[in-house]
Amino acid sequence: MNPFSSGTRLRDMIRAIRACKTAAEERAVVRKECAAIRSAISENDQDYRHRNIAKLMFIHMLGYPTHFGQMECLKLIAASGFPEKRIGYLGLMLLLDERQEVLMLVTNSLKQDLNHSNQYIVGLALCALGNICSAEMARDLAPEVERLLLTRDPNIKKKAALCSIRIIRKVPDLAENFLSPAASLLKEKHHGVLIAGVQLCTDLCKVSVDASNYLRKNCTEGLVRILRDVSNSPYAPEYDIAGITDPFLHIRLLRLMRMLGQGDSDTSEYINDILAQVASKTESNKNAGNAILYECVETIMGIEATSGLRVLAINILGRFLSNRDNNIRYVALNMLMKAVAVDSQAVQRHRTTILECVKLIDYLDVSDQDFKGDLTAKICLIVEKFSQEKKWYIDQMFKVLSLGGNFVKDDAWHALIVAISNAPDLQGYSVRSLYKAFQTSSEQLSLVRVTVWCIGEYGEMLVNNVGVLEVEEPMTVTESDAVDVLEACLTRYSSDIATRSMSLIALLKLSSRFPPTSERIKEIITVHKGSVALELQQRAIEFNSIIQRHQNIKSSLVERMPVLDESAYIGKRTSSSQANIVADKSSQPSSTATTLKFPNGVAKPPAAPLVDLLDLSADDTSVPSSTSNDFLHDLLGISLTNSPSSGIPPSGGTDILMDLLSIGTPVQNDTAPKAVSSNQGFAPTAKPVPTTIQVMDLLDGLPSNGSLPGSQTPVYPSITAFESSTLKIMFSFTKQPEKPHVTEIHATFVNLSSDAYTDFVFQAAVPKFVQLHLDPANSNQLPASGNGTITQTLTVTNSQHGQKALAMRVRMVYKVNSQEKSEQGQINNFPPGL
Prior knowledge:
Layout: H1 10-18, H2 23-42, H3 49-61, H4 70-78, H5 82-95, H6 107-114, H7 119-132, H8 135-148, H9 154-170, H10 179-185, H11 191-207, H12 209-218, H13 220-232, E1 240-241, E2 244-245, H14 247-261, H15 265-281, H16 287-302, H17 307-321, H18 326-342, H19 344-348, H20 351-357, H21 360-364, H22 369-386, H23 390-404, H24 410-421, H25 427-440, H26 445-464, H27 479-492, H28 497-513, H29 518-527, H30 534-549, H31 551-557, H32 566-575, E3 596-598, E4 602-604, H33 608-614, H34 631-636, H35 656-661, E5 713-723, E6 727-736, E7 739-751, E8 758-765, E9 770-774, E10 789-798, E11 808-816, E12 819-827
Antiparallel strand pairs: 1-2, 3-4, 5-6, 6-7, 7-10, 8-11, 9-10, 11-12
């Protein structure tokens, strides 16, 4: 027999495909088999039609197109025999879905089979309808399904109930037609029919308030009776699982009771007794029993239960926390989080057990690298939220920095510095603790930065043992030891400009507070006067000038920073929290970490599909999440994201201390192109463009020609940047007259579909000669049908303004009914002159 003919058996085709050694061989076999099936279809071969459809189903599962066989499924369904109908309906469910127009042709055959005298053919039709039913089919065939719910055959009833669930989900208006049949199913003895009936009632409650009221009035008593009978039933081998009779039916009943009792005190009171019985009698030594107990607890916490019943439920969760299975402990902790809002006193009884389960900081030491980013972010959030006193908060943050400092987000250790500056009684303790932690964990970047800052501010407390607490062990640190730490940071973190800049600032401060070390500090700073990093070179020259030429004012210049307003900082963090939801998952300790942060709320690790989309090179670096007016950057004296100077001239009343300690590039000619920052626009760091630089000593005076930026005036027409059948993006533009290379883009997002979008994230990439900054979006929820918009501001700096036009690739990620979707495109229609 020809191995590629319609008469080839299915098993022979499968054997031939599995024998292929390469994908090309497999494609060749599938291609020949599909050609043979097409020939058989064109010749109207009825003898092997069922075999051809079986082959097509296997080919479909391999991922090859099989649309040419859809009509053959309809022909098999129209046949009179059960074997042909079985293959036809199976092919219908696999090869078609509810969006196919050809599906409408099968409605008549389904109606005939639903009225067939053969129960097995009726079962086939119900099974197919329950899987691929569309709204139109639901309206046409609902009466037949409703009639089948009242038949005597339990298998038909069960399948009809499952089919009814699909129908009411597609057409909620039909729910009232199934209320009475659904209630009658709860009187059945067959467990399969009962489970299907209970699930049908649950779905009816979800789609209709009237259905909930009807079932609450007519079915509550029956549900309690069923649950009591199942709980007290003797051993039944056909339903027994781990010594428990039908735990699946238990769980379905408890879920339906929770829906009926929610917000209804009378129903809740009626089912309290049976819930207490189930919670007390169910054994917890098997997973089946634990599943029932968990569902029972969730039902108790979801209805208007008595306080005693809630205490019983929380005690069950307490037993779960003592279980060795981490999965059981996890679900117990999740449920306790909900229970705290309902009965916090009952939860307090299990406080010790809960704390034993959540030793997160200890777990941080042994956790996988992939999880440390999220774990440190959550630990920092918990520590900050639930700290009762500052010493406990500082101690816990020091532990996190020592174990996972490379994964701690900037705003977390910024907050720690603010807390230390506002705790004068703990400043000496903090700098000593950090000094000791540095000796063992100097590879943790965030710990190093906090240590450098504290030594620069409170170095004399470290050396003189100021503010020693009773819990501290005595230690001796010399002035030279403190300088050694800063010198080690300069050497070890040679590629991290931010950390080295902080170290230079700290050394300048110590040169005033530790006069014997002044000459050594001067030598260390002088070394960096020839640094290839312009930031360090400028800083070293200025600091060396202070040490040599301005001894009379040095002490006043490097005084301790004033205490920051902690409440203002917390308020600022809260207002910008949507821009910093997900922790930076970078595993690199330096500022060259390869995490892509998108400022409207989501930080994404670099993945191959995104790199392909945005056409990024392998050495791209991260986008800063902090804003240019972050006053903590002023506190630290540097721009922690290595971003270039904002270009705004200082005002005449600017404090000279802030001028001295602020980090930025030298004052440049405004007409010179700016170097592209490695932190924006996804481009590698570019060397400074040779230009005329106005070099000056910050202490000798300020430029006299500085002026404030002018007002922004829109001079370019708005454009439709992106439009699909579901989403539209519009751009409008404004510019500062004195900065033609800087453009502010106001993006407006409109949802054109009938479904609301949640977790909306906008991502963009630009060529390497363009610098991009995204402000947080005003929301991440996009209403349906254009009933609302999301707005977001983008700032682009074209370093080759007038030579190269702007271009941008965009990607939008959002969720529709909890399903993540994405769209992408390229924008090339920017107005000329941007």
